[in-house]
Specification:
The chain has 374 residues and is of the alpha/beta class. It is built from 15 helices and 12 strands. The chain has an 8-stranded parallel barrel, surrounded by 6 helices. It has a two-stranded antiparallel ribbon with strand order 1-12. Helix 1 packs antiparallel against helix 15 and helix 14 crosses helix 15. The protein is globular and about 60 Å long. About 4% of the residues have low confidence. It binds ligand FNR. Its EC number is 1.1.2.3. It catalyses: (S)-lactate + 2 Fe(III)-[cytochrome c] = 2 Fe(II)-[cytochrome c] + pyruvate + 2 H(+). Belongs to the cytochrome b5 family. In the C-terminal section; belongs to the FMN-dependent alpha-hydroxy acid dehydrogenase family. It is found in: Mitochondrion intermembrane space. Its cofactor is FMN; heme b.
């Protein structure tokens, strides 16, 4: 399909599904158990409706913002998603170039197919910001070395993932197991798959199981956050907050931000949809939004989804799968394409809402209904 015929993120996903291998499709699209949380991440956005304001000056309309002090052309970012080479030989560097050309920030996974320095080198300008997603290894000194390496390279923030101490059960991914040969062919820097702890009743935990082996399962508020603070000067964001109580704890612990996320429904099945957690935080603890930056990810596919999250107080919205699909289908041009689609949808929505900047998006503009549109 010519790129010009792609009008929505769903169109892009449809093209990608046709070009991806069975294994890549299984790894990218799968989610835990019956995929309820993943499905509801997407559907939950449709329970939020707007109260648009009219007769306002919106001819000058800017969707630009700042995320952790870094300029971003849109209130979105690329969520870390591992193994982009499964979909395209240039993998994550497609995303780096596409994001750089459009002024969007990419969060690079610990389990990327390229090293942090290779991805850093793919930036289109010396001022292009990059965030780093950390899976903390059990061994503190190994984790410290990695954090200091990315800080020395020039990465702008650390997102510590806390919702994946063990791999969620993703049936389709488990049926397409990840073998050492695949890792070598795909060029990932991961340790070879070892039979052992992640073997369960004769089944492996698929790609995700192989990737989280070796991660620290004993992270705590008391120990891990102060440890991370002591080894880096970079802003720290906790990725994988799934309830109001932990959002409050994070603010009290003194991190710079939280990313409300259930890992795209890939970890605990029946974790509440991300936008619902954001909504509860807005209702129950509006003060938190004054103290730290709050981001959300999971299921956002339209400009209106992003605008709803911004009205509820999010600084920006992350997306994972859409960028994997876009780079798989068309390389960096695909990444630029979906960012342009989102830009058009966001600016269009802002104008019709009566908002000329992201500051004009306020809680009074959105209402949660208790019925689910068909
Ligand atoms: C992920 N995600 C993820 N998160 C993380 O912290 N480190 C990682 O390496 C990965 N890897 C990864 C691979 C794939 C294939 C997917 C789909 C997701 C989770 C990711 O950062 C984010 O939470 C979700 O992708 C957001 O949901 P959507 O936008 O994909 O619905």
């Amino acid at each position: 399909l010519p790129l010009g015929r792609i009008l929505t993120l769903q169109d892009m996903e449809d093209v990608a599904r046709d070009v991806l291998s069975y294994k890549a499709n299984a790894y990218y699209s799968s989610a835990a158990d019956d995929q309820i949380t993943h499905t509801e991440n997407v559907r939950a956005f449709s329970r939020f409706f707007f109260h648009p304001r009219v007769l306002r000056t919106v001819s000058q309309c800017s969707p630009a913002t700042k995320i952790l002090g870094c300029r971003s052309s849109l209130p979105i970012f690329v969520s870390s998603a591992a193994l982009a080479k499964l979909g395209h030989p240039l993998g994550e560097t497609n995303i780096t170039r596409g994001a750089g050309r459009t002024g969007v920030i990419q969060m690079v996974s610990t389990n990327a197919s390229f090293s942090a320095s290779e991805i850093y080198a793919a930036r289109v300008s010396p001022t292009q910001p990059l965030f780093f997603q950390l899976y903390k290894k059990r061994d503190d000194s190994e984790a410290e070395k990695l954090v200091q390496e990315v800080e020395a390279l020039g990465y702008n923030a650390i997102f510590l993932t806390v919702d994946a101490i063990v791999a969620g059960r993703r049936d389709r991914d488990i049926k397409a197991p990840f073998a050492l040969e695949d890792q070598e062919r795909e060029g990932t820097k991961q340790q070879p798959y070892v039979e052992g702890p992640q073997e369960e009743e004769g089944h492996t935990l698929g790609t995700s199981g192989a990737l989280v082996a070796g991660n620290d399962v004993d992270m705590t508020w008391e120990k891990t956050i102060p440890w991370l603070r002591s080894v880096t000067k970079l802003p720290i964001v906790i990725k994988g907050i799934q309830c109001v109580a932990d959002a409050v704890l994070a603010a009290e612990t003194g991190v710079d931000g939280i990313l409300i996320s259930n890992h795209g429904g890939r970890q605990l099945e029946y974790s509440l949809p991300s936008i619902e957690v954001l909504y509860r935080l807005r209702i129950q603890r509006p003060d938190i939004f004054q103290r730290i930056e709050v981001y959300v990810e999971g299921g956002a596919r339209r400009g209106t989804d992003i605008l709803k999250a911004l009205c509820l107080g999010a600084t920006a919205v992350g997306m994972g799968r859409p960028f994997l699909y876009a780079q798989s289908a068309y390389g960096d041009a695909g990444v630029v394409k979906i960012i342009r689609i989102l830009e058009q949808e966001i600016v269009y929505g802002m104008r019709l809402l009566g908002a000329s900047s992201v500051r004009d998006l306020v809680p009074e503009m959105v209402e949660r209904v208790d019925w689910q549109p068909e």
